[in-house]
């Protein structure tokens, strides 16, 4: 967002204004069924193991039933202790 060149008197530094970024990470976590999205969760910041486990226990697990299948990739926060147990406690796999 900064200009690539500018003008200033010879021998003086060319100063310019560059806006500062306020970079924030927002994480959206949800489950997908054939009927649509369920258990949406929005976090301020990146996902970590404890936040993912809390999301599974408090938002996803109550919507699961016997025979449901949960698919996750190999993200390290998906492998935290307690996630598999919360899913299997509802009869899902």
Helix % is 10-25%
Please state roughly what percent of the residues sit in beta strands, choosing from under 5%, 5-15%, 15-25%, 25-35%, 35-45% or over 45%.
Answer: 15-25%
Distance between the termini: 48 Å
Described by strand count, sense and barrel closure, the largest sheet is:
2 strands, antiparallel
* Backbone structural class: alpha+beta
Q: What is the alpha-carbon Rg in Å?
A: 23 Å
Could you tell me the number of beta strands? 2
Number of helices: 2
Question: Can you characterise this structure?
Answer:
- InterPro entries: RNaseH_sf, Tc1-like_DDE_dom.
- This is Transposase.
- It comes from Vreelandella rituensis.
- One of its GO terms (molecular function) is nucleic acid binding.
- The protein has a domain at 26-88.
- A two-stranded antiparallel ribbon has the order 1-2.
- It contains 2 helices and 2 strands, in the order E-E-H-H.
- With 93 residues, it is α+β, with helices and mostly antiparallel strands.
- It starts with 25 loop residues before the first strand and ends in a 5-residue tail after the last helix.
